[in-house]
Design a protein that fits this description.
The complex is a heterodimer of chains A (about 425) and B (about 260). With about 425 residues, chain A is mainly α. Chain A has a domain of about 270 residues: MetI-like fold. Helix content of chain A is about 65%, strand content about 10%. Chain A has a three-stranded antiparallel beta sheet. In chain A, helix 3 packs antiparallel against helix 11, helix 10 runs antiparallel to helix 11 and helix 12 packs antiparallel against helix 13. Helices cover about 35% and strands about 25% of the residues of chain B. Chain B is built from nine helices and eleven strands. Chain B has a single domain, classed as Rossmann fold (3-Layer(aba) Sandwich), CATH 3.40.50.300. With about 260 residues, chain B is α/β, with parallel strands linked by helices. Classes of the chains: A mainly alpha (about 425), B alpha/beta (about 260). Chain A: This is ABC transporter permease subunit. Chain A: One of its GO terms (cellular component) is ATP-binding cassette (ABC) transporter complex. Chain A: It is found in: Cell inner membrane; Cell membrane. Chain A: One of its GO terms (molecular function) is transmembrane transporter activity. Chain A: InterPro entries: AA_ABC_transptr_permease_3TM, ArtM/GltK/GlnP/TcyL/YhdX-like, MetI-like, MetI-like_sf.
C-alpha cells in the first residue's frame, strides 16, 4: 500500500532566480529588457541634448520646403520648385523601379544559369560556373561602376548617328537608340487618351493605364476560371481539355481591343539636332545599376536554384519515371514543388539584398531614395537625423513587405511532416 | 577483376522455369558498363507470366542494376530486353509503354513527400493513364485497403512509419495496374517488425498471380513464394533453380559460399 503525498513545498530562495530552470530564462529576459531600454533612453536623451545644444529642434517641417534641385531620371512630374517630400517620393519610386527590374531579371538569369550549371553539356556547365564565380566574388559596387564605364566608353555618342553614312545605327528596326548618354526606347502614346486622374494637387494618374490594368485584371481572372474548369473536367473525365489558345485569346484580345480604341501607338525616338528626342529615355545610370545588380544577384540565385534542385534526391525522379511520368511532368509535379521550399527562403534574402544594394546608385548618379532624401536633401537642410531615420524607415518598410509576401508564399508550399 | 573470376555456366533446372507459356520479359545477351567497369555480363533471362523470381547475391553483384534496366532507369549498352512484346530502345514511346506496364518499389520507398498518401497513389493514374479523378481515387482506396492502410489516406508520407510507407509505395505502383512488379530490396531499410508487414503484402500479391521479380536478402520469402531463385555475382547470373534445390543443393562453389554466409548464423 502506498500513500500519495504532495512533494514537499519548496521554499522560494533568491538564488533560484538564477539556478532554477523555471525562472532562469525569465530573469535574464527581464534583465536584458531593462538594459536595452536604458540604452535607448540614454541614446535618445543624449541625442536630444546634443541637438538642443546645436540649436536644432528635431522637426520634419523641411519636407514641405522647396527642394531646389533637379532630378534627371524620374517617373512622376517633378521640378526644382517641388518640395523635398516630392523629391523623396521621386527617389522612392526610382528605388522601387530599379529593385523591381533587378529582382525580375536576376530571377530569370539566375534560374537559367542555375539549371544550366547542372547540364550534362561540359562546356555549358563550365561557362556557367565561371559566370557565377566571377560575378559573386567581386563587390557589386565595382560591377556598377564597370557597367557605367562600359556604357559611357563603348557606346556611340548621339552625334555618331548623324549624317548620310553614320557610324552608329539604331537597333531593332530603328526603334531603339543606344548611346553613351542612355538608351532611348519607344514610348506608348494614345491618340484618343482618356486624360489624367488628379489625386489632390500632387499626383496625376493616367486613366488609360488604369483602364488597361483593369481590363487585363478581368481577363486574367477569366483565364484563371478557364483553368479551373479544365481542372474540373480533368477530374470528371480524365482528359484535360487543351485551353492555352482560349486562355491566350481571353488575355490578349480585350486588351488589344482597348488599346486600339485608345489609339495606341508607339512614339519612336528621333535624332533632333545633337540628341535624340521622343521615346522613353533610360539614363545610363539606371541601366548600369540595373545590369550590375541583376548580374551580381543572379550569380547568387543561380547557386540557390542549383542547390534546391540538387536537394531533391534522384529517388524522387526515379520513382516518378518508374510510374511512367515524362521529364517535364516530373519537373513540374514532383521536383519543383519540393525544390521551391529549399529555394524560397534564401531567395527572399537575395531580393532584400538587391533592394538594399540599390542604394549604391549614388555611385553612378542615379537618384534613388538615398540620393535624394539622404543625399541632396540632407546636405541642403542639414537634417541628418530626420532624413536618415526616414530613409531607414523606407528601406525597412520595403524589405518587410518583400519578405512578408515571400514568407506567405513559402508557407503555402512547405512540406507537412508529422 | 578478371573476366574469368569463376567460370561456371549457369545451372538451370528446366522443371522450375514454366508457370505459363506466355513470356513476360525476355533478356538476351545484355551487357552494361559504367565507364570501363563491366557491371552486367551477358545476361540471359526469360521470365514467364505469373512467375515469382527472387534475385540474390552479394552487394555490387549487379542485381539492382539488372532489374533497373528492365524499366530503363538504367540504360543497357548491348543485347536485347523485350517486355510484354515491346523492345526496350531509346524510343520514348516504347519506354512509356513499358513503364506503364511495369511497377517498381524501391529500397527507400521514394514516396513524394509534398503529396498526401492518396495523391501519391492518384498522381500517375491521373497524369499518365488519364483516369478521371473520382475513378483514380476509388482505385487508390481499393489498393490502400488491400495493403491495410486506408485510414492514412489523407496523411503525408512523413507522418507514416517505414513499413507503412513501403506498403503505400506498393499500392502506388499497383494503382497503375501493372502486369509486372519489380522490387528492389523492399525490406532492407526497415525494422525487423515492419519487414513482416511488407512481406505479407508481397506474399498476398504473389498469390494473386502477379509476375514479380524481387531483389531481396529475405531467404524465407524466397523459400515460401519464389518459384525460381537466381544467384548473381560479379555481373553474371551464376546459378538459377527452384528454391528447394537452390537452398539444399547449390551447385556452384560461389553459391555455396554465399549461402553458408547468409544462412550460417
Amino acid at each position: 500500500m502506498t500513500t500519495f503525498t504532495d512533494p514537499p513545498a519548496e521554499s522560494f530562495k533568491l538564488s533560484m532566480l538564477v539556478y532554477d530552470t523555471r525562472y532562469r530564462s525569465i530573469t535574464f529576459q527581464i534583465l536584458a529588457l531593462v538594459a536595452v531600454l536604458l540604452l535607448f533612453g540614454w541614446l535618445t536623451m543624449n541625442t536630444a541634448q546634443n541637438l538642443n545644444d546645436l540649436g536644432k529642434e528635431p522637426s520634419f517641417g523641411f519636407l514641405g520646403e522647396s527642394a531646389g534641385y533637379d532630378i534627371n531620371q524620374r517617373l512622376i512630374d517633378y521640378s526644382s520648385q517641388s518640395t523635398h517630400l516630392r523629391a523623396a517620393f521621386v527617389g522612392l519610386l526610382n528605388t522601387l523601379l530599379v529593385a523591381a527590374m533587378g529582382c525580375a531579371t536576376a530571377t530569370v538569369i539566375g534560374v537559367i544559369v542555375g539549371v544550366l550549371r547542372l547540364s550534362g553539356n561540359w562546356l555549358v556547365a563550365r561557362l556557367m560556373t565561371v559566370y557565377v564565380e566571377i560575378f559573386r566574388n567581386v563587390p557589386v559596387l565595382m560591377w556598377i561602376v564597370l557597367c557605367m564605364a562600359i556604357l559611357i566608353e563603348a557606346m556611340p555618342a548621339p552625334s555618331a548617328f548623324r549624317g548620310d553614312n553614320p557610324d552608329a545605327t539604331m537597333k531593332l528596326f530603328d526603334t531603339i537608340a543606344i548611346t553613351n548618354r542612355g538608351v532611348y526606347i519607344p514610348e506608348p502614346l494614345f491618340s484618343r487618351s482618356l486624360g489624367n486622374l488628379h489625386i489632390g494637387t500632387a499626383f496625376d494618374i493616367s486613366i488609360n493605364l488604369l483602364a488597361i490594368l483593369f481590363v487585363l485584371g478581368v481577363s486574367l481572372w477569366i483565364a484563371r476560371d478557364i483553368t479551373r474548369r479544365a481542372n474540373a473536367k480533368q477530374e470528371a473525365t480524365g482528359l484535360r481539355p487543351r485551353t492555352w489558345h482560349t486562355r491566350l485569346a481571353v488575355i490578349v484580345l480585350p486588351t488589344a481591343i482597348l488599346l486600339a480604341f485608345l489609339g495606341f501607338h508607339l512614339g519612336y525616338p528621333e535624332l533632333k539636332g545633337f540628341n535624340f528626342a521622343g521615346g522613353t529615355y533610360m539614363r545610363n545610370s539606371l541601366i548600369a545599376l540595373w545590369l550590375a545588380l541583376s548580374l551580381y544577384t543572379a550569380a547568387f540565385i543561380a547557386e540557390i536554384v542549383r542547390a534546391g534542385i540538387l536537394a531533391i534526391s534522384t529517388g524522387q525522379t526515379e520513382a516518378a519515371a518508374a510510374l511512367g511520368l515524362r521529364g517535364n511532368r516530373i519537373m513540374s509535379l514532383v521536383v519543383l514543388p519540393q525544390a521551391m521550399r529549399v529555394i524560397i527562403p534564401p531567395l527572399i534574402s537575395q531580393y532584400l539584398n538587391l533592394t538594399k544594394n540599390s542604394s549604391l546608385a549614388i555611385a553612378v548618379g542615379y537618384m534613388d531614395i538615398t540620393g535624394t532624401l539622404m543625399g541632396i536633401t540632407l546636405n541642403q537642410t542639414g537634417r541628418e537625423l530626420e532624413t536618415v531615420l526616414l530613409g531607414m524607415l523606407v528601406y525597412l518598410t520595403i524589405s518587410l513587405i518583400i519578405s512578408g509576401v515571400m514568407n506567405w508564399y513559402n508557407n503555402r508550399v512547405k512540406l507537412v511532416e508529422r | 577483376m578478371s573476366d574469368t573470376a569463376f567460370d561456371t555456366t549457369p545451372v538451370i533446372a528446366p522443371s522450375a522455369l514454366k508457370v505459363s507459356d506466355e513470356v513476360a520479359i525476355e533478356i538476351s545477351n545484355m551487357n552494361k558498363w559504367y565507364g570501363s567497369f563491366h557491371v552486367l555480363r551477358d545476361i540471359d533471362l526469360t521470365v514467364h507470366r505469373g512467375e515469382r523470381i527472387v534475385i540474390a547475391g552479394p552487394s555490387g553483384s549487379g542485381k539492382s542494376t539488372m532489374i533497373r534496366c528492365i524499366n530503363r532507369l538504367e540504360e543497357h549498352q548491348s543485347g536485347k530486353i523485350i517486355v510484354d512484346g515491346t523492345e526496350l530502345t531509346s524510343d520514348l514511346k516504347n519506354i512509356d509503354k513499358i513503364r506503364s506496364e511495369v511497377g517498381m518499389c524501391f529500397q527507400h520507398f521514394n514516396l513524394f513527400p509534398h503529396l498526401t498518401i492518396l495523391e501519391n497513389c492518384t498522381l500517375a493514374p491521373i497524369w499518365v493513364r488519364k483516369t478521371p479523378k473520382k475513378e483514380a481515387v476509388e482505385t487508390a482506396m481499393h489498393f490502400l485497403e488491400k495493403v491495410k492502410i486506408p485510414d492514412q489516406a489523407n496523411k503525408y508520407p512523413g507522418q507514416l512509419s517505414g513499413g507503412q510507407q513501403q506498403r503505400v509505395a506498393i499500392a502506388r505502383s499497383l494503382c497503375m495496374k501493372p502486369r509486372i512488379m519489380l522490387f528492389d530490396e523492399p525490406t532492407s531499410a526497415l525494422d525487423p517488425e515492419m519487414i513482416k508487414e511488407v512481406l505479407d503484402t508481397m506474399i498476398e500479391l504473389a498469390q494473386e498471380g502477379m509476375t514479380m521479380i524481387c531483389v531481396t536478402h529475405e531467404m524465407g520469402f524466397a523459400r515460401q513464394v519464389a518459384n525460381r531463385v537466381i544467384f548473381m555475382d560479379q555481373g553474371q547470373i551464376v546459378e538459377q533453380n527452384e528454391p528447394e534445390e537452390f537452398f539444399n543443393n547449390p551447385r556452384s562453389e560461389r553459391t555455396k559460399l554465399f549461402l553458408s554466409q547468409i544462412l550460417g548464423h
